[in-house]
Amino acid sequence: MSKSRNFFLENIPLDEAWSRFITAMEEVWAWDEMPGEEVAVDEALGRVTAKPVWAELSSPAYHASAMDGYAVRSTDTIGAMETAPKRLAIGPAGPATYVDTGDPIPAWADAVIMIEQTQHIDEPDGGESIEIHAGVAPWTAVRPMGEDMVATELVLPANHLLKPVDLGALAGCGHAFVNVRRKPRVAVIPTGTELVTVEQARRCGLKSGDIIEYNSLVLSSQVRQWGGIPTRYPVVPDDYELIKATVLEAAAEHDLVLVNAGSSAGSEDFTSSIVVELGKLLVHGVAVRPGHPVILGMIAGFNRPVIGIPGYPVSCALTGETFVEPLISHWLGLPPREQPRMQASITRKLLSPIGEDETVRVTVGRVGERAVAAPLSRGAGVITSLVRADGIVRIPRFSEGVEAGQEVTVELYRTPAEVERTLVHIGSHDLCLDLLAQYLADSGRRFTSANAGSLGGLMALKRGDAHLAGAHLLDPATGDYNVSYIQQYLPGLPVVLLTFMHRQQGLIVPPGNPKGIGGLADLTREGLRFVNRQRGAGTRVLLDYHLGKLGIAPQQILGYKREEYTHMAVAVAVQSGLADCGLGIAAAARALELDFIPLEMERYDLVIPRIHYESDLLRPLLELINGQELRRAVAELPGYDTSHMGEIAGQW
Amino acid sequence: MSKSRNFFLENIPLDEAWSRFITAMEEVWAWDEMPGEEVAVDEALGRVTAKPVWAELSSPAYHASAMDGYAVRSTDTIGAMETAPKRLAIGPAGPATYVDTGDPIPAWADAVIMIEQTQHIDEPDGGESIEIHAGVAPWTAVRPMGEDMVATELVLPANHLLKPVDLGALAGCGHAFVNVRRKPRVAVIPTGTELVTVEQARRCGLKSGDIIEYNSLVLSSQVRQWGGIPTRYPVVPDDYELIKATVLEAAAEHDLVLVNAGSSAGSEDFTSSIVVELGKLLVHGVAVRPGHPVILGMIAGFNRPVIGIPGYPVSCALTGETFVEPLISHWLGLPPREQPRMQASITRKLLSPIGEDETVRVTVGRVGERAVAAPLSRGAGVITSLVRADGIVRIPRFSEGVEAGQEVTVELYRTPAEVERTLVHIGSHDLCLDLLAQYLADSGRRFTSANAGSLGGLMALKRGDAHLAGAHLLDPATGDYNVSYIQQYLPGLPVVLLTFMHRQQGLIVPPGNPKGIGGLADLTREGLRFVNRQRGAGTRVLLDYHLGKLGIAPQQILGYKREEYTHMAVAVAVQSGLADCGLGIAAAARALELDFIPLEMERYDLVIPRIHYESDLLRPLLELINGQELRRAVAELPGYDTSHMGEIAGQW
């Protein structure tokens, strides 16, 4: 089968694309703010006022006592002193009458004396009085009518997002209903013959080529979060007429139509042609990455905007943030959402193409005086990069990228305070770090981890990019771990070398070990495909050490140059049949139900600069490492030995 | 009727109160995090994971093409060059097969060549080929199985607040349901015989002593906003047994019971006795202000915490923030909510009692280089002080207050970015400022206004506390407005004096003018009660000027010393019969349907330091003042003349 492109994508700068879109909407009133609708005040939380609201009643609606006490005429109290108390008879017409907090004060009164400042007297004649020891000024302890709100005064402006106290104010000045902007209705139409629902996937399993459809779930949730009402359509197969009919039906009933995906220029990318047929194609291709194949258009008959949203999950979610959120905010009369920003130093060099605005997901933490931003996967298909992101960095289209160590602005998905209590780990990855993160969360610490291999972690410590680095670097000369590497790579940096655990390294092979692999010597066997770890990984160092002992040269091994970055990626390569074996930890083999040939128990340490080791921030981590709870949890995992956990293996 | 206190309130420091509360809950497991419940992933937005979630399926579930193009064996492409292209036949078993983005690559292939980098050839034998001009490395344009998530790997930790992309990741790795913490159920019980609903108030009007009940609306909305499920009970009258029965019923069905109010120590404050009878009273009175009369307790039979919440609306809302929110967050496994903070200079001295933590509501803006925080009303009954607040300042209990100009920490209710685009007005108040605020909002500017009188405004400019000050200060010597005051009070500060409008000042009298007041000469009449404005108010200056011309001394006027701070407060005093007349603007009289005796059209200017006048921040304000839209809106209000709007009345 051969295919060709229908046409090529444009590469329109974001601001130009956005401005074309707005202009087209303005022409047909689709850029107007949403009309108002009356809702009960007790259902108006989070809604936005469509008009200014004026008080209907004053609050308080009368002159009210601010205390439990006695209403009096201030003139009657003049001259009362500790040495010469005054006595006021209690009676409904004065000169003293009891009032509770909030009670109206009688018309003849102009002040209230707190009950604690009065003495109650039973008079011989059966009457009652109070005795007071000080005079009071007029209006003491009185809340004048309208103190809070005066009828006819402005209480809330238009375009105000209603908080709990706002609702109280509305009810307090006599409003049972409030006029709020109608919620924008947004149709979310997933298209694609290859798509299955997660329910189908669970029921019937996934065939090769099946993709679980979840972009419409993300888009619908975004719409709901931003204040709109989503309609999530069932998946429409790649059929031009079916998609067209669905778009048309959706346009009739919604303020905005989102079509996902088919927004590119491939053979089954129908969205642009459909938009051309049904109305006007304004933009096809925006100079952003991820998220280039975006379509902006108008459906003619209903004058409704339509957005074709790219299919890669990260592109999809970011397109929602870029185009859908500002539209909803505008319709609701709200200012554009503003993320908190912070300056941070980027931990590694990022190349970015000239001509496209690029969005890079990062984790962020403060290491000593510096805030550091560590880039996550830039793959548009890696939704977990957004799940784990603490924020994003934008590389503008007239820039070729950023250098390692360069200052960048991070738009935070978290509060700056969360960043302050984040422990930044860069180094070798191990499943136990996930456990550690879980336990640390209970102590109010966040733990972010970037996999850079053991040596990469030491280099990160040298640059001041991380609080700690997990490492398991075997020194072939001594048989010890990490010590000589620290001496070589971190001279002059005071660090503590803390043992986390020992773990089983070995060969990961398919279930049943079909090739009958017995050890590393078998790797040179004709046709046996190995999968390796990247340079600088402790596991690769371990491999090279043992190959050296066995006298095996790298070029004797098929696949020695095929590098993966994690134990799990090695296990996946074996599971999927791309490789016959790889070196990795027992836990990764167990996780994917693969077989495992043990090679060596290796020590996995945490390398921690002393300045962080002694900091408040890391104290909970040290408590966990030295306590019993985490030790028990790690010991339960297959292939781990915790008998040396918490021991200091060296310090400099 | 005489009353006495049941007992006095304690004054327990906040941290001690909170620790007693937690300890009691820990004893009976009521401090435990909420148990999990399964919800569909598409209903889980904003919920919190109760357990870590591990991937059930890998994503992608197979090696997938990352592009539209041809799957190939990389070894087949070696040697292809621009000058020596290679030709690969198209066929299902290779060496080239078309794949769409997302398609699985065939088992024999290990790379994909983008369609744009191939040339399609129709072979003479009827077959098809592609021609390529460069070799590709293994795994080019292939997303390996598990690139995003590997089955069995951790996807989300426990206690994670679910965002839209998280839901996508959950579905993407095979989860149709997710285990989330049950939402805490919170009973909100309003008590008080004086309370009416806003619906009742609208239907039957308010009798003197009636109070519209809205605290339960605020508390319920807070609970919902923080992630709980509120049950808002109908108002329970002040009847010990009724309230007790309601609390007991609520405790059986909720995780937390809130009783509002009756939490103080007055004659009808039953809550503490009820808590004593039903369980344990832990705290009665916390050393905070507002919000002192708080009750913390446990209901014994059901082991449910109960909070008695004070009745003043500000105390009520702040008690929600102080005690209810952290409880709900803890139950949901979330860290305590963290407001963004900023340092600001407080605009006026605040005295605060030793021994109590005080919460002061403030508006915040940045004036030049300084952030300034202007305190709002400290009255616990003034809910609008919370509505208008940009944040709060806490004055700790071991402090006597803060001096004007002192640096304080503001916990912001807004983002720092909102603060940056805030125009700070301090000075004379006028209804037109509300209009101005409305129009400015459309230009992306916030406008906060503090009423300090005309002279107070000039002093604020002198201190650098405001961007602009509204002023209408008549110079008796010249008959001109503001000029001589600016020369006297702001020497050396370059300012622009911009005319906003002219407005009608006059005497505000009850409808029908029952006392037959004709002008200022009548103010000396026997028994006629006047209400004055505060010193420094332009209206007071105007009064004194005319009194001087008429030869009337202040002491000849009954009520000259009774000061109100706004035109509306003067109008309210007249409307409620506390005064027979006052001096103020026509608009205030009209608003409350009072009669008005015109005295003089006065000029109301905006005094703007040149540095702000020329700033970006104020540009939208100048555009409005010089445009037609605002002019028309002001001209429509009774008593305003806009013919000089936008004229520069002086500059220095």
UniProtKB/TrEMBL annotation, chains A, B:
Does this UniProt record's set of keywords contain Methyltransferase?
A: no
| EC number, as in UniProt | 2.10.1.1
InterPro entries given for it? MoaB/Mog-like_dom_sf, MoaB/Mog_dom, MoeA-like, MoeA_C_domain_IV, MoeA_C_domain_IV_sf, MoeA_linker/N, MoeA_linker/N_sf, PBP_domain
A GO molecular function term, named singly, is:
metal ion binding
Boundaries of every MoaB/Mog domain copy: 187-330
Annotated SUPFAM superfamilies: MoeA C-terminal domain-like (SSF63867), MoeA N-terminal region -like (SSF63882), Molybdenum cofactor biosynthesis proteins (SSF53218), Periplasmic binding protein-like II (SSF53850)
Q: Which cofactor does it need?
A: Mg(2+)
Q: What are the annotated GO cellular component locations?
A: cytosol
Q: What does this protein do?
A: Catalyzes the insertion of molybdate into adenylated molybdopterin with the concomitant release of AMP.
Q: Which PANTHER family match?
A: MOLYBDOPTERIN BIOSYNTHESIS PROTEIN, MOLYBDOPTERIN MOLYBDENUMTRANSFERASE
Q: Which family does it belong to?
A: Belongs to the MoeA family.
Q: This protein is called what? A: Molybdopterin molybdenumtransferase
**Species per Swiss-Prot/TrEMBL record:** Pelobacter propionicus (strain DSM 2379 / NBRC 103807 / OttBd1)
